[in-house]
C-alpha cells in the first residue's frame, strides 16, 4: 500500500490554473498533489550571443524554491551569493526539455524565458515545473501568433514530465515525498504528448533494478504523461 492510498499506476490530483500573474506573457499555477509551482513565460526580442544572426529562437528556464516551500526554512540562494548545483541542474533540464518540443525556426530569432518558482514542495518539483512550464510557453506563443509575429505554430507537441520509481518493491507512478525519500529506484521521465522520450533520469537509490523493471517504469511514465498532456491541452483551450 502506498502512503497516500493511491493505486500503483495512479497519479496525484493535477490542476492547472492559467493567467495567475498580471504581467507575464504566459503564466500558470500547477498543482500536482501537494507540489505547487508558479510558471511564467517572458518573451524577449533577443537571443543568446551564440545563436545571434542564425534566425533560430531560444527557450531557456530558471528554477527556484521559496524558503518555506519545504518543511523547514531553506536559505535563499541569493543570500548565499550563488545557485546550488541542484538548482542549476534542474533549470538546465527544464530548458532542454521544453526546447525539444519547439520548432526554433518557426519561433524566429527571439527568446522565451520560463521561470518556475516552487511555492510548496512534496516531491516531483522538476516534473511539475516542466509540465507547467510548457503551459506558460504555450500561452506566450499564442500571443505571438495572435499578434502575427509568428506565422507557423512553433510548438510541435506538448512536453510533460512525471516521476516513477520502485517503492516497497513495486513500480509506482508519480512519487510524492514520502515515497521519493524511501524509493529503491527513482526516475524522472520527460516525454512529448505523443509518447516520444526526451530525457530519462534513473538511478538506484537503495537497490539495483532490472531491464524488466525499467520497462515497467517507462510504461507507467507513458500513462502519466498522456494524462498530463490532456490536462495541459484543457488548460490552454
From TrEMBL:
Phosphorolytic 3'-5' exoribonuclease that plays an important role in tRNA 3'-end maturation. Removes nucleotide residues following the 3'-CCA terminus of tRNAs; can also add nucleotides to the ends of RNA molecules by using nucleoside diphosphates as substrates, but this may not be physiologically important. Probably plays a role in initiation of 16S rRNA degradation (leading to ribosome degradation) during starvation. It comes from Pseudooceanicola batsensis (strain ATCC BAA-863 / DSM 15984 / KCTC 12145 / HTCC2597) (Oceanicola batsensis). It is an enzyme of class 2 (transferase). InterPro entries: ExoRNase_PH_dom1, ExoRNase_PH_dom2, ExoRNase_PH_dom2_sf, PNPase/RNase_PH_dom_sf, Ribosomal_Su5_D2-typ_SF, RNase_PH, RNase_PH_bac-type, RNase_PH_CS. Homohexameric ring arranged as a trimer of dimers. Residues 10-140, 157-224 form the Exoribonuclease phosphorolytic domain. Phosphate binds at residues 86, 124-126. GO terms for biological process: rRNA 3'-end processing; rRNA catabolic process; tRNA processing. Keywords: Nucleotidyltransferase, RNA-binding, rRNA processing, Transferase, tRNA processing, tRNA-binding. PANTHER family: EXOSOME COMPLEX COMPONENT, EXOSOME COMPLEX COMPONENT RRP41. CDD domains: RNase_PH_bact. Its EC number is 2.7.7.56. This is Ribonuclease PH.
Amino acid at each position: 500500500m502506498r502512503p497516500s492510498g493511491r493505486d500503483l499506476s495512479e497519479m496525484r490530483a493535477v490542476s492547472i490554473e492559467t493567467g495567475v500573474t498580471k504581467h507575464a506573457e504566459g503564466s500558470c499555477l500547477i498543482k500536482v498533489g501537494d507540489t505547487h509551482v508558479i510558471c511564467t513565460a517572458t518573451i524577449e526580442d533577443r537571443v543568446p550571443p551564440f545563436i545571434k544572426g542564425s534566425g533560430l529562437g531560444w527557450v531557456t528556464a530558471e528554477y527556484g524554491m521559496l524558503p518555506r516551500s519545504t518543511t523547514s526554512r531553506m536559505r535563499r540562494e541569493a543570500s548565499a551569493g550563488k545557485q546550488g548545483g541542484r538548482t542549476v541542474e534542474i533549470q538546465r533540464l527544464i530548458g532542454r526539455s521544453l526546447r525539444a518540443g519547439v520548432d526554433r525556426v518557426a519561433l524566429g530569432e527571439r527568446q522565451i524565458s520560463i521561470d518556475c518558482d516552487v511555492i510548496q514542495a512534496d516531491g516531483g518539483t522538476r516534473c511539475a515545473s516542466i509540465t507547467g512550464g510548457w503551459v506558460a510557453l504555450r500561452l506566450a506563443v499564442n500571443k505571438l501568433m495572435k499578434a502575427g509575429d509568428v506565422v507557423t505554430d512553433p510548438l510541435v507537441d506538448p512536453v510533460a514530465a512525471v516521476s516513477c520509481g520502485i517503492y516497497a518493491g513495486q513500480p509506482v507512478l508519480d512519487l510524492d515525498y514520502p515515497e521519493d525519500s524511501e524509493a529503491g529506484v527513482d526516475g524522472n521521465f520527460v516525454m512529448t504528448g505523443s509518447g516520444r522520450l526526451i530525457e530519462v533520469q534513473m538511478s538506484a537509490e537503495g537497490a539495483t533494478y532490472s531491464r524488466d523493471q525499467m520497462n515497467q517504469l517507462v510504461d507507467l511514465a507513458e500513462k502519466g504523461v498522456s494524462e498530463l498532456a490532456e490536462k495541459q491541452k484543457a488548460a490552454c483551450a
